[in-house]
Amino acid sequence: MVELSSNFLFTAFILYLVGILFFGGAIKDKRHADKKAGPNRWAKIGIIITIAGFVSQLIFFILRWIASGHAPVSNLFEFTTFFGMSLVGAFIFIYFMYKTPLLGLFTLPIAALIIAYGSMFPRDVTPLIPALQSYWLHIHVTTTAIGQSILAVSFAAGLIYLVKSVDQQKRTKSNIWLEVVLFGLVSTLGFVFVSSYFAATDYSVNFNYINKDGQPDTEKYSLPALVGPYQYEMTDQSRFEPLFKTPAIISARKLNTVIWSIGAGIVLYGFLRLILRKRVAAAIQPWTKNINLDLVDEIGYRSVLIGFPVFTLGGLIFAMIWAQIAWTRFWGWDPKEVWALITWLFYAAFLHLRLSKGWHGQKSAWLAVIGFIIIMFNLVAVNLVIAGLHSYAGS
Amino acid sequence: MKEVKCECGHVNPQGTILCESCGRLLEDNEKEKQLIDMRYEGSARRSQTYNKTIIDKIWNFFSSVKVGVSLIIILLIASSLGTIFPQEMYIPPLLPASEYYGEKYGWLGKLYYDLGFHNLYSSWWYLILIAALGISLVIASLDRVVPLYRSLKNQRVKRHESFLKRQRMFHVSDAELPEEASAKIKAKLAKKRYKLREEDGDLLAEKNRFSRWGPYVNHLGLIIFLIGGMLRFVPGMYVDEILWLRDGETKSIPGTEGRYYLKNNQFIFEVYDKDKDEKVFKDAISKVGTVVKNYQTNATLYERQGDIIPGETPKLEKVRDQSIQVNKPLKIDGYALYQVDYKLGEMSKMAFKLENKQTKEQFGDLVVDLYDPKMSYDLGKGYKVEVMSYFPDFEFNEDGEPATKSRVPNNPAFIFNMITPDKPDGEVSFVAIRQNLEPLGENDYKMTFAGIETKNVTALTVRKDYTLWIIGLGGLIFMIGVVQGAYWNHRRLWIRRINGQIWTAAHTNKNWYGLKRELDEVFADSGIDAPKDQEAEDKKE
Ligand code: HEM
Predict the structure, then answer these.
(1) Ligand 1 mean position to B480 CA, how many Å?
(2) Which of A127, B91, B147, B295 has its CA 20 to 30 A from that of B34?
(3) Residue B290, burial from CB neighbour count under 10 angstroms (0-12, 13-18, 19+)
């Protein structure tokens, strides 16, 4: 059943990619892109394919739930793919409010990237430790992911806004930062490529080393080691010898993965620049030609407005209820909790700035981008680097 | 209080921008602007009106959204600092914090500790930040809610031209609005749940006014939440104790003043078994090793009968049997007992034999209860063992003498006096795990170790929290408020007949696009145009 469910996930992923092509077609089709007449045929097919992908991923989710006996949101792979699915769901929902294929052209690649990223983590069905055996946990995690994904739509809208409105004629702070954001997306893609390649070739290299508690330990890398652990000794002789060693408190394996991702990102990005012969944002700018900036701004704001209450409910209120039952206190200043609070405070600031200081347009778009970075930080860095009680951590 | 009189005769409080009655502009410097600020309907706010005394200044400071947002951002950044390294409560208890941070994270860790960031969330300055946010919430809300109430309540159908003209959505049509078309518009508006008011053929259509209260409701929820958090510091509102119970042991539940007792019948610890549990978990379990499946205390709850009489064993009446698991606390009378910790295989009994070293002959068994050893054990026939000293958690102290670290039998040691028919004064022997010393010279007899019994120990946290209700209520009110403010918006449409023209203007507090779409539908084939977005036109020029 788990095997079968994975096929549905894969199908969903492919359908999302096809959906991107159709939304691209919808924009290129000059006859009625984003005009009053409503979405053209390309866009209509695009949204149908997207919905088919969403349904397919929903089947994956249900089958895996049946197979494991608990909602599949209990490890990084499951949570991240669920987040990707919610993002597609949020997009479908907002698409029917505003009928803008361009939003699909930006949201679907982000969702596909998130799903691909999540699939790089161990995909085994994991049993639940006692603290996680609570339906409140599942309610909390799913609601949070849905809230975050609606907020993420504002990131997509913000990106569209910036790509269209940031002046690409001359070099400015804005377009450098915009390239940095796009580079982040490209690096994630780089990570996916590199991990998939070495996973397909069954690469591994093992070390004996001294861990952060001063104890001998072993570590297994699935990427060639550029950095080795503290006082390491490589146990596979034929492998590439690391160039550096890390101090004991840094996880060398994770640092190694980060270096590979950025490296692959630089290669990919460099390659893109070479064929495009201009900034990446400048290259996608023509796609946004026909969109109305006010509309994009409004979509960004509305998605924050819709997502904020959902996130509050899942990420803070349900989280507190669960924490009270499982950990005896509703709040414990665990890093994951603190970052949920930070996310919440950030979007509260967003709403106030917009309402009272009139931060519309580009300012608002940048805030949406920063908000998404905070969400991703909580998902990726806090789980992998800071890691508190929330026991997804580790892999 | 100074007052401002409008041309229409209405007397407004000082600071009012738009007349509360007819909507005429009162402030001269507002007249230059093309669009008016409609946020509080142009009514007077305390913070905009007074700025003399120190109280005015404090009020104005906290009522400013700029200050509010700054507080939120400072709090956000401060909070993130506390996640760089673990907080003190999460560090392993092996080293004191003063050494731990420096040792583990180098000079940065030391700095972190010196700045007090290891206890950031209970530091005085963090609490002050939260308090300031709370004050700001209260003052900013009070400052706005009254004027907003006044103006939303005092809405006129006929608004002055200067009011209509300065609305963001505005249009003048040089056309007639025949009765038929007008009725159609009204029907469409009613269908979209607008409430209609008419005066001499002029129209005000309004809906979702309640959503304007959303922010005030959610701020009220937050304030209640913060008050709930503060009450935690009031004695009696909050109990947080820990209860260690060995298998078979009964103890009074701390914090209940001797009213309730709990017996631990058995503590259960289970791990997933890759062969016995569901097959889908097999791969994950083989990769990770052990994964814990269950922590459980099978407990019996008792209630004491009668008063406490010192020195007397209390009379207990069983309330119920219940198993306590993680995520499944036992609840009684406002108290909750949570499974939080455990210890497997704590030594509970030790068995010895008295043995003649030469003949290897043994004389009887003695089983020492490590929680409560007897003074002496009579083995019959003149053989007897006296316990001279007992060290449950044995160590040599700084003076090199035997001592005990705690009362928990982690490393039990004894000084026995062995009395036998041939040595009636006894021989002294020191016995600890894998040690057998004869401090007072060579003995003829010794105590040989004959096994141990162990017990599991469970640890339960005892909580009583009377603030939870308030905090929950605050959360609920907050949710109602955000949803109210976010999922509905307040929309208004004015239609006036002025000098043979039709003036239309519309306002919403958010979601202009939605309003535009709605109005386009309402005015479709009515002969007059829907109000147009003046701001969007501004931009194009
Ligand atoms: C973490 C704390 C806070 C949260 C979660 C919060 C939440 C909100 C929300 C959701 C809105 C509605 C925004 C919208 O509809 O776009 C709002 C409005 C508002 N907030 Fe807050 N707020 C917080 C703190 C503050 C503070 C400290 C101030 C003090 C200046 C403040 C002043 C206001 C004002 C003036 C409004 C607009 C009210 C209106 O439109 O009538 N808020 N707040």
Answers:
(1) 14
(2) B147
(3) exposed
Residue A300 phi/psi, 5-degree rounding, is -60, -45
Which chain A residue shows the shortest CA-CA distance from B483? A309
Q: How far is the CA of B512 from the centre of ligand 1 (A)?
A: 20
Q: Which two tokens stand for residue B300?
A: 């019996």
Interface probe with B: pick from A129, A329, A350, A391, most Cβ of B within 10 Å: A129
Question: Hey, is the C-beta of B512 within 8 angstroms of any chain A C-beta?
Answer: yes
Q: How far apart are CA B483 and CA B385, in angstroms?
A: 76
Specify if A162 maps to a domain.
Answer: yes
Q: The complex's ipTM?
A: 0.90
Helix axes A293-311, B512-523, angle to 10 degrees: 120
Which residues contact ligand 1 via a Cβ below 6 A? Answer: A 345, 348, 351-352, 355-356; B 65, 68, 71-72, 133, 136-137, 140, 144, 215, 218-219, 222, 482, 485-486
Residue A230 makes CB contacts below 8 A (sequence gap 6+) with: A209, A210, A211, A212, A245, A246, A247, A248, A252
Distance CA A185, CA A192 (A): 11
**Which residues partner with B270 through β-bridges?**
B294
How far is residue A286's CA from residue B332's CA, in Å, rounded to a whole number?
66
Chain B residues lying within 8 Å of A249, measured CB to CB: 104-105
- Convert the pLDDT of each residue in B462-519 to its tens digit: 988 888 999 999 999 999 999 999 999 999 999 988 888 888 999 988 888 889 888 9
Residues B410, B28: Cα–Cα separation, whole Å = 84
d(CA A79, CA A63): 15
Q: Which atom of ligand 1 is nearest to the CA of B212?
A: 41
Sheet containing A205-210, strands listed edge to edge, beginning at the edge strand earlier in sequence? A216-221, A205-210, A233-234
Q: Could you tell me if residue A200 is inside a domain? A: no
Query: With an 8 Å Cβ cutoff, is A214 touching chain B?
Result: no
**Residue B505's closest CA among B480, B528, B477?**
B528
Round to whole Å and give the CA distance between A24 and A20.
Answer: 6
CA pair distance B288, A184, nearest whole angstrom: 32
Please tell me whether residue B91 adopts helix, strand or coil conformation.
coil
Least trusted range by pLDDT, from B37-51, B108-122, B524-538? B37-51
CA atoms A29, A30, A34, A35: torsion sign: negative
DSSP secondary structure string, B489-519?
--EEEEEEEETTEEEEEEEESS-HHHHHHHH
Q: Which two tokens stand for residue B225?
A: 């939440």
Please give the tally of structural domains in chain A.
1
Distance, in Å, from the CA atom of B157 to the CA atom of B163, rounded to the nearest integer, reads 12
CA B448/CA B144 separation, integer angstroms: 84
* Ligand 1 centroid from CA A351, angstroms: 7
Asked if residue A294 is part of any domain, the answer here is: yes
- Torsion B218-B223-B226-B231 (CA) sign: negative
DSSP character for A239?
S
Q: Name B61's Cβ contacts closer than 8 Å, sequence gap at least 6.
A: B67
Q: Is A304 a domain residue?
A: yes
Residues spanned by the domain of A32: 2-168+278-394
The two beta strands, B202-207 and B501-508, are unpaired
**Inter-axis angle of helices B468-487 and B214-231, nearest 10:** 160
